[in-house]
Design brief:
By secondary structure, the protein is mostly helical. The chain has one domain (3-259). The protein has helices at 3-18, 21-24, 29-48, 55-85, 89-92, 99-127, 140-165, 170-173, 176-184, 195-201, 205-219, 224-255. The longest helix has 32 residues, at 224-255. It is globular and about 65 Å long. The protein starts with a helix and ends in a 12-residue tail after the last helix.
Protein backbone atom coordinates (compact mmCIF):
# COMPACT_ATOMS: atom_id res chain seq x y z
CA UNK A 1 0.00 0.00 0.00
CA UNK A 2 1.18 3.51 -0.82
CA UNK A 3 0.90 5.92 2.10
CA UNK A 4 0.54 8.95 -0.14
CA UNK A 5 -2.58 7.50 -1.76
CA UNK A 6 -4.09 6.69 1.63
CA UNK A 7 -3.28 10.23 2.74
CA UNK A 8 -5.01 11.59 -0.37
CA UNK A 9 -8.30 9.98 0.75
CA UNK A 10 -7.88 11.46 4.24
CA UNK A 11 -6.96 14.85 2.81
CA UNK A 12 -10.09 14.87 0.65
CA UNK A 13 -12.25 14.40 3.75
CA UNK A 14 -10.35 17.18 5.52
CA UNK A 15 -10.99 19.61 2.65
CA UNK A 16 -14.68 18.67 2.62
CA UNK A 17 -14.95 19.44 6.35
CA UNK A 18 -12.93 22.62 6.11
CA UNK A 19 -15.08 23.92 3.27
CA UNK A 20 -18.43 23.22 4.94
CA UNK A 21 -19.26 24.13 8.57
CA UNK A 22 -22.47 22.12 8.15
CA UNK A 23 -20.30 18.99 8.04
CA UNK A 24 -18.40 19.95 11.19
CA UNK A 25 -21.40 20.48 13.47
CA UNK A 26 -22.65 16.85 13.36
CA UNK A 27 -19.21 15.66 14.56
CA UNK A 28 -20.07 16.79 18.09
CA UNK A 29 -23.64 18.14 18.18
CA UNK A 30 -25.52 14.84 18.49
CA UNK A 31 -23.12 13.33 21.00
CA UNK A 32 -23.38 16.49 23.09
CA UNK A 33 -27.18 16.20 23.08
CA UNK A 34 -26.93 12.54 24.14
CA UNK A 35 -24.55 13.38 26.95
CA UNK A 36 -26.76 16.16 28.29
CA UNK A 37 -29.96 14.11 28.03
CA UNK A 38 -28.58 10.98 29.67
CA UNK A 39 -26.59 12.99 32.16
CA UNK A 40 -29.73 14.59 33.57
CA UNK A 41 -31.58 11.27 33.48
CA UNK A 42 -28.77 9.72 35.52
CA UNK A 43 -28.82 12.56 38.04
CA UNK A 44 -32.59 12.26 38.40
CA UNK A 45 -32.36 8.52 39.01
CA UNK A 46 -29.70 9.17 41.64
CA UNK A 47 -32.11 11.50 43.44
CA UNK A 48 -34.99 9.00 43.58
CA UNK A 49 -33.12 5.69 43.92
CA UNK A 50 -31.80 4.14 47.10
CA UNK A 51 -28.65 5.67 48.48
CA UNK A 52 -25.34 4.10 47.63
CA UNK A 53 -25.86 3.45 43.91
CA UNK A 54 -24.58 5.91 41.33
CA UNK A 55 -26.28 5.77 37.94
CA UNK A 56 -23.84 8.18 36.31
CA UNK A 57 -21.01 5.71 35.55
CA UNK A 58 -23.50 2.99 34.64
CA UNK A 59 -25.84 4.88 32.28
CA UNK A 60 -23.75 7.83 31.15
CA UNK A 61 -20.70 5.61 30.69
CA UNK A 62 -22.74 3.20 28.59
CA UNK A 63 -24.04 6.03 26.41
CA UNK A 64 -20.52 7.36 25.93
CA UNK A 65 -19.13 3.99 24.87
CA UNK A 66 -22.06 3.19 22.57
CA UNK A 67 -22.01 6.62 20.95
CA UNK A 68 -18.29 6.21 20.36
CA UNK A 69 -18.85 2.98 18.43
CA UNK A 70 -21.69 4.55 16.42
CA UNK A 71 -19.54 7.59 15.55
CA UNK A 72 -16.72 5.32 14.39
CA UNK A 73 -19.14 3.44 12.14
CA UNK A 74 -20.59 6.67 10.76
CA UNK A 75 -17.11 8.07 10.22
CA UNK A 76 -16.50 5.30 7.69
CA UNK A 77 -19.95 5.31 6.08
CA UNK A 78 -20.21 9.09 5.74
CA UNK A 79 -16.79 9.30 4.09
CA UNK A 80 -17.92 6.56 1.71
CA UNK A 81 -21.29 8.23 1.10
CA UNK A 82 -19.52 11.40 -0.01
CA UNK A 83 -18.30 9.44 -3.02
CA UNK A 84 -21.78 7.95 -3.49
CA UNK A 85 -23.51 11.32 -3.43
CA UNK A 86 -21.02 12.93 -5.79
CA UNK A 87 -20.86 9.85 -8.09
CA UNK A 88 -17.11 9.93 -7.74
CA UNK A 89 -16.25 6.21 -7.77
CA UNK A 90 -15.28 6.04 -11.41
CA UNK A 91 -12.91 8.99 -10.97
CA UNK A 92 -11.31 7.56 -7.83
CA UNK A 93 -10.73 4.06 -9.15
CA UNK A 94 -9.50 5.28 -12.51
CA UNK A 95 -6.38 6.10 -10.49
CA UNK A 96 -3.89 3.48 -9.19
CA UNK A 97 -5.73 3.52 -5.84
CA UNK A 98 -6.31 0.01 -4.48
CA UNK A 99 -9.18 -1.23 -2.31
CA UNK A 100 -6.97 -1.65 0.82
CA UNK A 101 -5.69 1.91 0.34
CA UNK A 102 -9.21 3.27 -0.09
CA UNK A 103 -10.56 1.44 2.96
CA UNK A 104 -7.51 2.48 5.02
CA UNK A 105 -8.18 6.09 4.10
CA UNK A 106 -11.80 5.73 5.25
CA UNK A 107 -10.66 4.18 8.54
CA UNK A 108 -8.15 6.96 9.25
CA UNK A 109 -10.82 9.56 8.43
CA UNK A 110 -13.12 7.81 10.88
CA UNK A 111 -10.44 7.91 13.60
CA UNK A 112 -10.15 11.68 13.16
CA UNK A 113 -13.88 12.43 13.13
CA UNK A 114 -14.81 10.02 15.94
CA UNK A 115 -12.01 11.43 18.10
CA UNK A 116 -13.71 14.83 17.98
CA UNK A 117 -16.95 13.33 19.26
CA UNK A 118 -15.11 11.31 21.94
CA UNK A 119 -13.34 14.38 23.30
CA UNK A 120 -16.62 16.33 23.47
CA UNK A 121 -18.35 13.42 25.26
CA UNK A 122 -15.54 13.04 27.79
CA UNK A 123 -15.46 16.77 28.54
CA UNK A 124 -19.22 16.99 29.06
CA UNK A 125 -19.42 13.80 31.10
CA UNK A 126 -16.51 14.85 33.31
CA UNK A 127 -17.00 18.58 33.75
CA UNK A 128 -20.80 18.78 33.80
CA UNK A 129 -21.90 15.48 35.32
CA UNK A 130 -18.85 14.44 37.30
CA UNK A 131 -18.21 11.12 35.59
CA UNK A 132 -14.83 9.87 36.75
CA UNK A 133 -13.15 7.54 34.28
CA UNK A 134 -10.91 6.23 37.04
CA UNK A 135 -13.81 3.98 38.01
CA UNK A 136 -13.18 1.95 34.82
CA UNK A 137 -9.45 1.87 35.45
CA UNK A 138 -7.15 0.53 32.75
CA UNK A 139 -10.05 -1.40 31.22
CA UNK A 140 -11.28 1.75 29.49
CA UNK A 141 -8.58 1.34 26.82
CA UNK A 142 -9.53 -2.23 25.75
CA UNK A 143 -13.23 -1.26 25.98
CA UNK A 144 -12.66 1.54 23.47
CA UNK A 145 -10.41 -0.65 21.30
CA UNK A 146 -13.04 -3.40 20.92
CA UNK A 147 -15.76 -0.85 20.17
CA UNK A 148 -13.50 0.91 17.67
CA UNK A 149 -12.84 -2.31 15.75
CA UNK A 150 -16.57 -3.14 15.87
CA UNK A 151 -17.50 0.31 14.54
CA UNK A 152 -15.00 0.03 11.69
CA UNK A 153 -16.38 -3.41 10.76
CA UNK A 154 -19.96 -2.08 10.77
CA UNK A 155 -18.92 0.91 8.67
CA UNK A 156 -17.24 -1.28 6.06
CA UNK A 157 -20.25 -3.60 6.02
CA UNK A 158 -22.60 -0.66 5.48
CA UNK A 159 -20.40 0.65 2.67
CA UNK A 160 -20.38 -2.78 0.99
CA UNK A 161 -24.19 -2.97 1.15
CA UNK A 162 -24.60 0.43 -0.48
CA UNK A 163 -21.96 -0.33 -3.10
CA UNK A 164 -23.83 -3.51 -4.03
CA UNK A 165 -27.43 -2.27 -3.82
CA UNK A 166 -27.03 1.35 -4.79
CA UNK A 167 -27.37 4.76 -3.11
CA UNK A 168 -30.99 4.18 -2.11
CA UNK A 169 -29.76 1.39 0.19
CA UNK A 170 -28.18 3.94 2.53
CA UNK A 171 -31.50 3.96 4.40
CA UNK A 172 -30.74 0.37 5.40
CA UNK A 173 -27.53 1.56 7.06
CA UNK A 174 -28.68 4.32 9.42
CA UNK A 175 -30.86 2.01 11.59
CA UNK A 176 -28.13 -0.61 12.11
CA UNK A 177 -26.94 0.75 15.52
CA UNK A 178 -30.53 0.99 16.79
CA UNK A 179 -31.23 -2.58 15.67
CA UNK A 180 -28.11 -3.91 17.40
CA UNK A 181 -28.43 -1.97 20.67
CA UNK A 182 -31.06 -4.27 22.29
CA UNK A 183 -28.79 -7.28 21.66
CA UNK A 184 -25.62 -5.48 22.84
CA UNK A 185 -27.04 -4.98 26.34
CA UNK A 186 -26.00 -1.35 26.46
CA UNK A 187 -28.16 -0.51 29.51
CA UNK A 188 -28.98 -3.90 31.03
CA UNK A 189 -27.37 -7.32 31.66
CA UNK A 190 -27.67 -9.92 28.93
CA UNK A 191 -29.42 -12.18 31.42
CA UNK A 192 -32.44 -9.87 31.03
CA UNK A 193 -32.87 -11.02 27.44
CA UNK A 194 -34.72 -14.14 26.27
CA UNK A 195 -32.46 -17.05 25.33
CA UNK A 196 -32.64 -16.53 21.57
CA UNK A 197 -31.58 -12.88 21.98
CA UNK A 198 -28.76 -13.91 24.32
CA UNK A 199 -27.44 -16.22 21.62
CA UNK A 200 -27.30 -13.33 19.14
CA UNK A 201 -25.80 -11.05 21.81
CA UNK A 202 -22.90 -13.47 22.30
CA UNK A 203 -22.00 -12.96 18.65
CA UNK A 204 -21.63 -9.19 19.12
CA UNK A 205 -18.28 -7.88 20.40
CA UNK A 206 -20.00 -4.88 21.99
CA UNK A 207 -21.98 -7.11 24.37
CA UNK A 208 -18.75 -8.23 26.06
CA UNK A 209 -17.71 -4.60 26.54
CA UNK A 210 -20.93 -3.57 28.28
CA UNK A 211 -21.04 -6.72 30.42
CA UNK A 212 -17.44 -5.96 31.39
CA UNK A 213 -18.25 -2.33 32.16
CA UNK A 214 -21.01 -3.37 34.57
CA UNK A 215 -18.72 -5.93 36.22
CA UNK A 216 -16.04 -3.28 36.79
CA UNK A 217 -18.53 -0.84 38.31
CA UNK A 218 -20.37 -3.38 40.47
CA UNK A 219 -17.53 -5.66 41.60
CA UNK A 220 -14.38 -3.71 40.64
CA UNK A 221 -13.11 -6.76 38.78
CA UNK A 222 -13.33 -8.24 35.33
CA UNK A 223 -12.34 -11.56 33.85
CA UNK A 224 -10.14 -10.96 30.84
CA UNK A 225 -11.39 -14.03 28.93
CA UNK A 226 -14.81 -12.67 27.84
CA UNK A 227 -13.32 -9.37 26.71
CA UNK A 228 -10.60 -11.22 24.80
CA UNK A 229 -13.32 -13.22 23.07
CA UNK A 230 -15.06 -9.94 22.17
CA UNK A 231 -11.79 -8.60 20.76
CA UNK A 232 -11.29 -11.74 18.68
CA UNK A 233 -14.83 -11.43 17.32
CA UNK A 234 -14.22 -7.77 16.44
CA UNK A 235 -11.03 -8.63 14.53
CA UNK A 236 -12.79 -11.50 12.76
CA UNK A 237 -15.69 -9.26 11.67
CA UNK A 238 -13.26 -6.58 10.52
CA UNK A 239 -11.40 -9.07 8.31
CA UNK A 240 -14.67 -10.58 7.07
CA UNK A 241 -16.25 -7.23 6.13
CA UNK A 242 -13.03 -6.06 4.45
CA UNK A 243 -13.04 -9.23 2.35
CA UNK A 244 -16.73 -8.69 1.58
CA UNK A 245 -16.15 -5.09 0.47
CA UNK A 246 -13.36 -6.21 -1.86
CA UNK A 247 -15.58 -8.93 -3.31
CA UNK A 248 -18.47 -6.52 -3.87
CA UNK A 249 -16.13 -4.01 -5.50
CA UNK A 250 -14.74 -6.62 -7.89
CA UNK A 251 -18.31 -7.61 -8.78
CA UNK A 252 -19.16 -3.94 -9.44
CA UNK A 253 -16.14 -3.58 -11.73
CA UNK A 254 -16.69 -6.89 -13.54
CA UNK A 255 -20.38 -6.21 -14.26
CA UNK A 256 -19.96 -2.51 -15.05
CA UNK A 257 -22.04 -1.62 -12.01
CA UNK A 258 -19.59 1.01 -10.85
CA UNK A 259 -19.98 2.93 -14.11
CA UNK A 260 -23.77 2.75 -14.00
CA UNK A 261 -24.11 4.14 -10.49
CA UNK A 262 -27.12 6.49 -10.32
CA UNK A 263 -28.99 8.39 -7.65
CA UNK A 264 -31.76 5.80 -7.57
CA UNK A 265 -30.25 2.34 -7.71
CA UNK A 266 -27.25 0.43 -8.85
CA UNK A 267 -29.34 -2.54 -9.96
Amino acid sequence: MALHRIWAIVLRQFFLLRGSPARILPLFAWVAIDMVLWGFISKYLNSVASAGFNFVPMLLGAVLLWDFMVRVMQGVTLAFFEDVWTRNFLNIFATPLSIPEYVSGLVISSIATSSVGLVVMILLATLVFGLSFFIYGAMLVPFLAVLFLSGIALGILGSAIVLRLGPAAEWFIWPIPALLSPFAGVFYPLSTLPHWMQFIARLLPASYVFEGMRAVIARHELSASPLLLGACLAVFYLLLTSWLFGRVFRHAVRTGLIARYTAETAG
